Amino acid sequence: MYRxxxxxxxxxxxxxxxxxxxxxxxxxxxxxxxxxxxxDAYRVTARWPRDRADSGxxxxxxLVETVRQSFPLLSHAAFDVPLGHHLxxxxxxxxxxxxLLLADRPAERDGDEVQLDVVCQDVVRRGNxxxxxxxxxxxxxxxxxLATAQTRFTxxxxxxxxxxxxxxxxxxxxxxxxxxxxxxxxxxxxDATTSQDxxxxxxDHARRWQLRVDTSxxxxxxxxxxxxxxxxxxxxxxQAAQALCSPAPVLAVAMECVFTSYVELDEPCLVEAARxxxxxxxxxxxxxxxxxxxxxxTSCSTVVTVVPHPDAPTH
Length: 315
Prior knowledge:
Layout: E1 31-38, E2 41-48, E3 53-54, E4 57-58, H1 60-77, E5 86-96, E6 112-126, E7 129-141, E8 144-156, H2 158-165, H3 171-176, E9 200-202, E10 208-211, H4 230-245, E11 250-259, E12 269-276, E13 284-292, E14 297-308
């Protein structure tokens, strides 16, 4: 997860309206503009503030948040989805070039320009309203390919969403009932400067942790929500991979995630990790699953591909 201190030189005047990316704090908006480039094709621009690069390296979760902000932007601005509708993740994946996360590359003084070329596919409409779509991304930085990403999500009108969520639909009530976060485990985020950025706490099992839901987090809980945000779940999966690989520091360079149910705030959620077969390039892969409820149903399953962190000592 990217840094949560807000010393950025970005201002609301240089970014898209915060409502279009579902943010309350203007300083958390990363996107700077968008335009249509063809039928169901768009170019979205963003700026990454230099003060969000720790030790000269941007966190992969900053890429995730940049892509995530484009979902509501394009839904509202390009597909006329009304504000107040809910975007519900089905799946999300990305793969990046780690060398292009280095923050000392040529860039403007106050931040790095990032470009997202987006193609919308498998658009499902109900009447004149979009109710589901797939977005495929080519992400570049300084004109060089940085990453690919893809997501599928559905769009729910407020009345339908309330019916689906039942007694969990009210965000203020859900946050008030949230399970207090347990003690953070530093092996999940050895670089964390605050416990807010650690998404896991220990259990009695070496490869199982409890999800830490800190509703005071300024990014994940920028505004009231009725369930654990998808971006928090992705960060928890990334941190579980790091905890499993500890003490060796690793960098998540790819993730493939499937969301199968909401992670509720008012009951514990367990996060489990296991090593998988290496990918064709010889990189380590970690399978991470999130479980919740009395029957331990899977809420989210992710494959995280990692490489040695560039800051790791070599021998």
